[in-house]
Amino acid sequence: MNLTLKVWRQKDARSQGRMVTYEAADVLPDMSFLEMLDVINEGLIAKGEEPIAFDSDCREGICGTCSMMINGLAHGGQRGTTVCQLHMRHFRDGDTILIEPWRARAFPVLKDLVTDRGAFDRIIQAGGFVSVNTGGAPDANALPIAKTDADTAMDAAACIGCGACVAACKNASAMLFVSAKVSHLAALPQGQVEREQRVLKMVQAMDEAGFGNCTVTGSCEAVCPKEISLDFIARLNREYGKAILKNTVPRSGKGGD
Amino acid sequence: MKLDPKIPAGPLALKWDRRRFEMKLVNPANKRKFDVIVVGTGLAGAAAAASLAELGYNIQAFCYQDSPRRAHSIAAQGGINAAKNYQNDGDSIQRLFYDTIKGGDFRAREANVYRLAQLSVSIIDQCAAQGVPFAREYGGLLANRSFGGAQVSRTFYARGQTGQQLLLGAYQALCRQIGLGKVKMFPRTEMLDLVVVNGHAKGIITRSLVTGEITAHAADAVILASGGYGNVFYLSTNAKGCNVTASWRAYKKGAAFANPCYTQIHPTCIPVSGEHQSKLTLMSESLRNDGRVWVPKKKGDNRPSRQIPEDARDYFLERKYPSFGNLAPRDISSRAAKEVCDEGRGVGPGGRGVYLDFADAIGRIGEAAVRERYGNLFDMYEKITGENAYQAPMRIYPAVHYTMGGLWVDYDLMSTVPGLFVLGEANFSDHGANRLGASALMQGLADGYFVAPYTLGHYFATAKEPKPRLDQPEFKKAAADMQELTRKLLAINGKRTVNSFHKELGAMMWEKCGMARNEKGLKELLVQIPALRQEFWKNVKVAGQNEELNQNLEHAGRVADFLEFAELLALDALDRRESCGGHFRTEFQTDDGEAKRDDENFAYVAAWEYAGPGRSPILNKEPLTYEEVHLSTRSYK
Q1: Cα torsion B541, B544, B545, B551: sign
Q2: Do the chains contact at A34 and B278, CB–CB below 8 Å?
Q3: What would the pLDDT profile of B517-552 be if each residue is shown by its tens digit?
């Protein structure tokens, strides 16, 4: 099939960007979306033009590196699918496809479709962990955990940190991402000791990074490649509320110890 | 070059204890005076960086990804082994040790493997304490599954995302230390060279993948945890960015490279669909717990799978290896699949595929139970192929997955360059000629959490080297060399793209140095590779400039190193005139087509030493002496 691509090109973080049109000829249905872009890039390089910069790594939907808006939808809008796993059999001959980077103030564009998602790392650094040093852990079976709790934790922990939730949200909210980590650790006995500290610190880091508030429209859940449920945002709000009501004071300094 | 593996004396089970007792310590107040560079933030790198920072050392950690959470350990699906014996099925440290040595076809260092089996137990405890959501039984205890090469259930898992969850555990521990200021993290930064001062590893040269800036970093020791070299084959299950550059540049600065010819071909991957293919996707080995592998008995039987009656099917793994059946080790299963496809009995486009069929399992436990166990893998399969594996069998074919070879390290995981430690897939030490499933995660975490934190301290306490300074000539020269290399790549401005060279290299490596190798093919390869490398340096076209985010330039540097490294791989494969594990030389096989080892002449580690540009590398041998294990012919029949 033959397609027309309109792709966001931006030289670097300081430059103005614009949409540029490319023709993609002889695209095969078994190609992944990124393989289709690979072919375009090979053509551009051969012609002496700059290839389109885009992030990708594992190309099997788990590392969370790939990130682009396709026709206005994060990862292209196929349910539960990262763009690296989106295949061209879902497009039709003659389609025009718009390709843009994540759009959020907290994710500045570095070049073309590549953005800086370091804000997510800073949120985890603020408290998204259990403070146990290596060594001295008790036997893993010393602490039985109900299967339902372990499953809830795993549902939340499946988040790949790609940022699609932020890109899809009209407020560029990171609540789904934050709620996934807060819920994962709050569901497990290992996470209890720091439960209140964690949620306060992570929410504070989220606000400082410039993410907006939750709109409760659920666009994040709709595009999440791991189908993380909006219910976790309700859990996050509950965790946050409980911590405030308990008059928890966030310990100073980052990281916790 | 002198290879001293520094294996502690005494009985196998007490060696690690003894070594830990012998080690000199750094007092807690002095630890903050030492700086450590960690390259790579996968399981080994993140675990080491976090654990060393907890002890008080100052860490600088580097990864090429935009976040340490994205290192390729994240893609491991099936699980992690540990000798917990929670299932009461007769497992023990001794058994895990023996399975691993045997699985590696008796080409691994005994003492290291025993320590790995010992440490496996603590890894699970550590990860559970971090909040890794391992699968559990209804009673709340941890669940296990079986994996290839073992007859006990010792594999712990978190759905089909075990690597992801273990990595996030290590990443979170790392993030905690970043927040505390003990680790300075450099994402989107690639190591280009190792800096050696007075014979000791004292720093690295990096390139920022955002600005192109080339920078020198100094430290008292350097840890490489930069993964394997599977992408020398172009198509592999590795992430696109995985590369050999860090290891290769360390090799050229004096670190011996061991057993590069030990590469693992994983039997269950989704077959290639066309020229455009950019990578291959693994379907977890755990699927072989419930899936049955078969091809039609008759050549050219191209009826749809469900119309082929039971008696016209050849369940070739069950037939050839009745006691392990579909759970035969990876190298053996891969070769068996290649064999039936070579006979013309392969399925799917091009005939390069075999069926992995779940019909029996669905009949036995129901579709819902199969979905519960493997749902995400079935989904992934459908996304890539457009086919529903609940209704028709999956089609699978072997693909390059893991590399057992790597930089040579002693028992302390230190390379032949003092102060340079190598962890995880980047070293050679624990898997011999073939790695068992669910053992890579175990090794990465053992190295990072429980070995390096001790052995680095001993190095600091005994080496007593002066602190390096960035104004030393070694740093300036290394940085200038890297600037020159980058300039050269950009100046060629030829006619062929970087990717076309990578693809061509990969195709020739797969053909002549893949699942089966022989002298003739390898000799041809040793002519082809240098020729292709020459053409690369004359005719490659790299887009853009250095001073920007330039993915084409990143790729060019990596391919340039693969083009050098491939030659060493082929040379090692030619030199090892025996078959063992993943290294199968067609000249050396038994009458029924199994790998034929030659313990008399090849029970050694081949550690290659760089001899300078244009000169043949020097082969050093570390003999493998077995105190406990009796070398036997591996049989899974």
Answers
A1: negative
A2: yes
A3: 999 999 999 999 999 999 999 999 999 999 999 999
